Amino acid sequence: MAWSLALVAYLLGTFPSASLVARANGVDIRTVGSGNPGASNVTRVLGWRKGVWVFVLDAAKGALAAGLGLVVDGRPAGYVFGALAVVGHVFPIWNRLRGGKGVATGGGVFAVLSPVVFVVLVGLWAVISRLSKKASLASIVIVALLPVGVGIVRQEAWEVLATIGICILVMARHLGNIKRLLTRNEHALT
Q1: Mapped to the 3 state alphabet, what secondary structure does the chain carry?
Q2: Using alpha carbons only, what angle is made at residue 121 by residues 29 and 68, rounded to the nearest 5 degrees?
Q3: How far apart are CA 78 and CA 84, in angstroms?
Q4: Please, how many CA atoms are within 13 Å of residue 150, restricted to the half-sphere of its CB?
Q5: What gap in Å lies between CA 49 and CA 10, rounded to an integer?
């Protein structure tokens, strides 16, 4: 595996999609809403169109990294490079390691590595977030189901374990959301 390209995967993940889209609209996304630089907060603050742009850009980071890994050294590298993009999104070196939660970037990784699972879970995310008005609840559910979907479709133990590893990082970033959901203080989508 060309490990020199691993740094490229991490750096792809650090691209500040939410901050750039919000800044282009006169908003510092870190100071409004939940303060999280992600698609859900941009949606809350600037509306669905801007939120979709951030989702697409963040997903593209993960997809590019996973695709690069596939080209370099097959599926194992796809997982490693995809995971590095998620780490870059969550812990961007350019922003004192304070980034987003990794849902969209991780989604992009699995759009490349398990596209059927990705499509099903995006649909499920849309239904849950629409019914509950809670993007975090929808994200938590799909992150929990992702390893199951990968296990059903791919049926490779190492891929399920790699998926669980990525999901643990994303789920850890949602601990505050889980607490707020339990106390009914979670931010709602508009």
Answers
A1: CCHHHHHHHHHHHCCCHHHHHHHHCCCCHHHCCCCCCCHHHHHHHHCHHHHHHHHHHHHHHHHHHHHHHHHHHHHHHHHHHHHHHHHHHHCCHHHCCCCCCCHHHHHHHHHHHCHHHHHHHHHHHHHHHHHHCCHHHHHHHHHHHHHHHHHHHHCCHHHHHHHHHHHHHHHHCCHHHHHHHHCCCCCCCC
A2: 75
A3: 10
A4: 26
A5: 27
Any idea how long the chain is?
190
Encode pLDDT of 47-70 as tens digits.
Answer: 889 989 999 999 999 999 999 999
- Residue 3 pLDDT class (50, 70, 90 cuts): low
Question: To which residue do tokens 């690069």 refer?
Answer: 68
Return d(Cα 174, Cα 165) in angstroms, integer.
15
What is the average pLDDT value for the chain, to the nearest integer? 91
Conformation bin of residue 139: beta by default, left when phi > 0, alpha when psi is -120 to 50 = alpha
So where are the chain's domains?
A: 3-182
